[in-house]
Every structure is written in C-alpha cells, then in structure tokens.
Amino acid sequence: MRLVCFPHAGGAASAFLPLSRALGGHLDVLAVQYPGRQDRRREEPYHSIAAHADALSEVMEPLTEGPYALFGHSMGAVLAHETARRLVTAGRPEPRRVFLSGRGAPSPLPGAHDRLGSDTEILAAVGALGGTGRAVLDDPELLAMVMPALRADYGALGTYHWGGGSPLSCPLTVLVGDADPVVGVAEAAAWRGHTTGGFDLRVLSGGHFYLDDRTDDVRDIITTSLLVAGSPA
User: Where do the domains of the chain lie?
Assistant: First the structure.
C-alpha cells in the first residue's frame, strides 16, 4: 500500500525521511515536494490552498489505482483532506485512511495562528513551534531560501476557510501533541465531523513537531491502522 505524505508549512519532502525509514518494509512511502523549496525552489509556490489541492489531486489520480492512504502534518493535513475530497469528487477511489496530524479541524474562518501579516510574525510563529525548522532561522542564507515558501504557505493558510461539503466516508486518524501550542485536543477531535467512517484520535507526548521524537509510535499507529485493523493492503 502507498502512503503519500504532505509536509507542513515551509516544509519539504525530506521532513518525512525518518518516518519513511521507519515504515520501510511495511508501506511504499511517498512524500509530496511542494514547489518553491529544495529541488523545486525555482518554481513559484502556490498562494492558495484551493489551487494547491487542485494541482495535488491531479497528480495523485494515477496513484489511486491501487490501495493508498494519506498522511498530512499541519498545513499538510489541510492539503491531504482537501486533496482527498477532490479525488472523491472526480470519481476516484477514496484513501483507505487519512492521517491528519498537528492540525485542528477546518472552520468557516481562518485560524488565528494562520493570520500572519509580516515576515516578523511568520518567523516568530515558526520559532515558537520548534521542530527541525528551528536551525534554519539561525542561518541567514538558509532563511533567505525558505522565506518565499513560508510567505506563500502562511498566506495560503491565512485565507483558507471551510466552505462546507460532504464528509469523507473513509476512516480518519487524527494525531496531536499534548503540548502543541497551536492545536488543542478538542480542536483535533473536531475532525470527527468530517467523516462518516471510523475515527481515531491519538494524543502523543510532545509539541507541534512531536513527530520528530515519536517516529516509532507514529509508525506503529500507521501500520496497525492500515495493515492490521481491517485495512489489508
């Protein structure tokens, strides 16, 4: 079974390298490389969630010919959910399961933590979240390289809102750190309303980037959900 992973705002496909290694031998792990970073850094990043999800769903269509699942962290959770909805609308098979990490359920208004109007606010938000991106903030050359993507990603999140629509019918697994400064457990639990299928909420110790320290636990949650608990490849 394929597991397609969607990175956080400002993040790149390499963010999922540890998880990919942990899942080796269990799943075929693919990670989305958004434009505007790493090997796609010369490409213009998307400035809206809708445009980004439209492009992702088009690229994803051939991958739906076999069993697949989606995993999105933070902004990636929004994109994984919106991409799944577009695939269903296009008549493609639903994912076996969607894993939504480090993000509260979508709401009619953009979240307060997404409405950042300046580079200073963006950098303060990224610094407060911690994670592997912390080292980038201390390197002026690296920072200059990632700022266009960060501006675009936070700009997209700052204008995103939930416009309604039918829930998915595939099961959702929602993961959140118990010390996440921007996503509370209640906000994460609200994803329950976005599926008519099964729902599983997992609260792990750690902050917004709990995944950096709990990779093995996340691996076990994924493999149990997909390969053991009634979701055979």
Answer: 2-228
Q: Determine the 3-state secondary structure of 178 from DSSP.
A: coil
CATH 3.40.50.1820 is held by the domain 2-228 = yes
- Point out the catalytic residue in the list 20, 48, 57, 74: 74
pLDDT digits (tens, 9 = 90+) for 94-123: 999 999 999 999 988 887 788 888 999 998
Q: How many helices (H) and strands (E) does the chain have?
A: 8, 6
Beta bridge partners of 98: 70, 172
d(CA 133, CA 137): 7
**Known catalytic residue: 107?**
no
Render pLDDT for 192-214 as a digit per residue (tens, 0 to 9): 999 999 999 999 999 999 999 99
pTM reported for the whole predicted model: 0.94
